[in-house]
Amino acid sequence: MSHAADVFPFPGSTYRGPAPQYAAFRADQPVVKVPTAGGVDAWLVTRYEDVRALSADPRLSRARACGPGAPRIGGTMHTTPEMIISLDSPEHSRLRKLVAGAFTLRRVERMRAGVQKVADELLDDMQAQEGPVDLVQQLAVPLPLTVIGELLGVPAADLRDFEKWARAFATVDDRAGGEESLNGLAKLSEYIVGLVADKRARPTDDMLSELIAARDNDDRLSEQELVTFGFTLIGAGFDTTANQLANSVLALIADHRDQWRWLAEDRSRIPVAVEELLRHVNLFATDTSGFPRIAADDIEVGGVTIAKGDAVLLSLASANRDGDVFPDADRLDLAREKNPHISFGHGLHYCLGKHLGRMEMEIALDGLVRRFPDLRLAVPEDELPWHNGEINHTLTSLPVVWGA
To answer: Which parts pass through the membrane (predicted)?
Structure first.
């Protein structure tokens, strides 16, 4: 019988890094079968090259992990079968082709001035207050949420309700559903259905209207696909960015104040620093991408055979700490130039929103180090509240102060 410490998800993972088991597995058993909290054994893949290769391997199926009768693996995200992150090709390729135009680097760069304006207004409000200020409520949540609202064309008058429902949706998980969260989920669903109908009748200059109009020859997105994509955008584009920003600021002001000051001295260093924060700061509580896969065929990798039908977990957090790829991998080095991190995934499900996430991180950090070079925690770190969900390391509050 396995010891609790050997059951996935392993205890000991924090925003600072993955649980200690991963380093041992990378060294001795890079592809290892582990029992999971859901009662199903799964192959855990921990080295960078293997994780990257399998992320792009069509023999690993996301759809089989999301369909009826799929194994329940404790501590992983169980998405609905119609979401783009749940699809295999050719269905995934069809959907991605229709929506990819809305996420190009050029399209995202056109949003920069608008994102900067939102960030400046939030930081103006923060600067006008006498601390302590909750950075989660003041910046980490409202910045990406306002941006997603604008992408979907949510009218300004509806943004407050949209924010409340979206936050409830983002915190739904196996252990913390709760009546309030489920009610928020229902309200958000109803709202997005109405929003799609409204944009179809009266298109405006926003991403949702663009997606409604998207065509690939005679192909188009169905009503259900549009609504589902709205949910995906909120979960991936809002919650993930909010958590990454809050956790990154915490890492800098709690553990790496010298590097925070180093950024403040020369803000041109921020784009390279963001890549290192994406690599080093551990977002996923399970240390994987949160998404299990099922082998559709036998696969040889890392000296073992993954059999057809077996569940597979790819650890992005472990891959990002692989010393064969990242020298001194456990050290946060904001000047790290060669940084092929895999935080946005790889292959078929490479994150569509990567350009937007990077831009929001850069703008937020630039504003913070410029205005608050002496930003620091207002409470002891062990008093910070974390959401007890199974997917992300989520700070629910980050009280900070600055000045004398």
So the answer is: none
- Residue 105 confidence (pLDDT) above 90: no
- Residues 41, 35: Cα–Cα separation, whole Å: 4
Q: Is 365 exposed, middle or buried (0-12, 13-18, 19+ CB in 10 A)?
A: buried
Distant-in-sequence contacts of 156-161, Cβ < 8 A, 24+ apart: 158/191, 161/187, 161/191
Beta-strand relationship, 293-295 and 133-134: unpaired
| Mean pLDDT (whole number) for 143-160 | 87
Per domain, the residue ranges of the chain are: 4-401
Structure tokens at 302: 């890392």
| Torsion angle (degrees, nearest 10) of CA 144, 148, 151, 155 | -110
CB 326 within 8 A of CB 279: yes
CB 104 within 8 Å of CB 356: no
From residue 219, give the alpha-carbon distance in Å to each of 88, 97, 263, 313, 383. 18, 10, 47, 33, 52
The CATH code belonging to domain 4-401 is: 1.10.630.10
Contact 274, 365 (CB under 8 A): yes
- Are the C-beta atoms of 301 and 288 separated by less than 8 Å? no
Give the pTM.
0.92
Measured distance CA(5)–CA(174) in Å, rounded = 21
Minimum mean pLDDT range among 134-138, 149-153, 390-394, 395-399: 390-394
Residue 168's pLDDT band (boundaries 50, 70, 90)?
confident
